Structure formats: structure tokens, C-alpha cells
Amino acid sequence: METFDDDLEILDLTQNVFPTRIYDRNNHFDQMDNLTFFRSFRLTKPTVLHVLEQIEEQLEYPDDRNNSISPVHQLLICLRCYATGGHLSSCANFMGIAVSSASRTVKKVTNVIAGLRPHYIEMPMLEDAVTTSNKFFSKGAGMPKWDSYSHSIPGGEDAELFRNRKWYFSINSQVVGDAELRIRDIVANLPGSTHNQTIFVNSRIRARFDANEFPNFTLLEWILGKNYLLTPVADPQTQPQQLYNEAHIRTRNSIERLIGVWKRRFPVLACDCRLKLETTLAVIPATAVLHNIAIQMNEGEPQQRAIWAI
């Protein structure tokens, strides 16, 4: 008959075979200089503190059992994941935690940041809309707003649903942006095989224009409302047609630049995202929120070379 002492002996042998590992977590926030910190986490220290102030309470653990991860460390783990394209093993080694802890933390923090969406991703009110229009006109674009589509790499089952027309797997996202490269509206929950027009026709932004939510936004309604989308003239013959095409190109360049800056700031959007599909769908609006916060905090645009300096 087995005794209590026998159970203790078995437990002791098990701990010898699978010893508990204690990770040494580095204090990257205090130890890194500003440039190294930005290259590693894609946001500056003041911006990270600004984000932390809004989500800290939701990241706090009720006690410090099992060496719980602090809110600032959780946020940096998530940002590091966004900076490395979703490589959880690389993120875990860099941050000094287990891969399983990195996975849980990234999911948790991503959902919390995505919850800030109503505060940072919204269509402008009348005064802001006029300002946005003037900024586009001052740049010689001539059109106030544009929407575009971006693809992010997903994982998960039913992969063929996510194969887009270019034959790679993605999530097709619709983005509405303004002249300051802020994201004003986003739809990011449909597989890459979904046609762009299908996304727009079924989007909330179209329903809002159909419901005349923006009665005074004549220029916005002209672009996205009654006729929904304007396309360039195929064979411009007159000067007005040529000017229209030029304005069309310049306006589209603005949204393409927005997409480029957004992806350079967070390479997880451009690389093969190695997270679960559920988490990936939350990463897209979460990074959009962080992108808008970075613009609000007057952060500079990330340089292309900085992507590889991580």
C-alpha cells in the first residue's frame, strides 16, 4: 500500500525531471535608451505611458502570486509581439517569460487595447470634417476622404476562405483615413477571399450614410454616400477630367501612405501573423488604435530601416 511518504518521493522525482524555471525579467523601460526602446517596441516611452494610463487597471492582477507580470511589462510584451510579426518564442525570450505566458498576455492586452476603439477611431464631426477637407485641398488633392483595403496574414482553420485574389492567405480590411493619416473607420473581420465591394456594401459606414447620419457632410457624401465610390476616368480628354484624375491619384496616395506607415509601425500587419485567428482579428483594430494614439502624441513616422533593427 502506498504511503504519504511515497507520494512525496514521487513528487520530488518529478520536480527533479521537470524543474520549475524562474525567468529573469529585464526592465526594458528603464534600461533602454529612447532610440533602442522605439526600435524594439515601435512606440516612444511617453506614448507607452499614455496608453498604460488608460488600460492599467484592466491589466492588474489581484495579487503577486507566481511572480505575476506587471501591467507595464504586459504592455511591452504585446508591443514586442507587434514589432516582431507575431513570433511568440522570440518575444518571450526577449522579455524573459515563458512562451505560454507571452501567448496569454498578448491575447489579453490586445483585447484591452482594441476596447479603446470607440475613443480613437471615429468619423469626424462637422467641424473636423471641414478641417479634414481643407487639409486635403491644401495638399492639392481636391478630395476630402478615401477608403482603401489592406491585407493582414491570418492563421487558423478553413484556410481556403482566406486565400485572396493574389493567392496568399489574408484578412481583408477596409480603412477610412484622413489627411493626417489617422484611421477614421475600420472593418477587419472578413477573410481575404471577400471582395472589396462586398465589404463596403455590408459595412456600418455605408449604413450610416444611407441613414443620413452626416447630412451636412456634402463632400463626404459625394465620395462615400449616394454614389459611394468615385473611380478615375479611364481615358481623360478634357482638362477637368485630367485634373479630376490627378486629384484622385493624390487622394489615393494619402490612404496608401497611411497603410504603409501603419504597417511599418507594426510589422505584425505585414508579416505572417503566427497568432490564433481570434487574436489576429483583434490585433488589427488594436494596432489601428495605437497608430492613432501615436499620431495624437506627435510621434514621427517609423523609418523603413527600423523594422529590421529589432
UniProtKB/TrEMBL annotation:
Needed co-factor(s): a divalent metal cation
Organism (species): Molorchus minor
Protein name: DDE Tnp4 domain-containing protein
Keywords on record: Metal-binding
Domain DDE Tnp4 stretches: 157-292
Superkingdom, natural source: Eukaryota
Annotated InterPro entries: HARBI1_dom
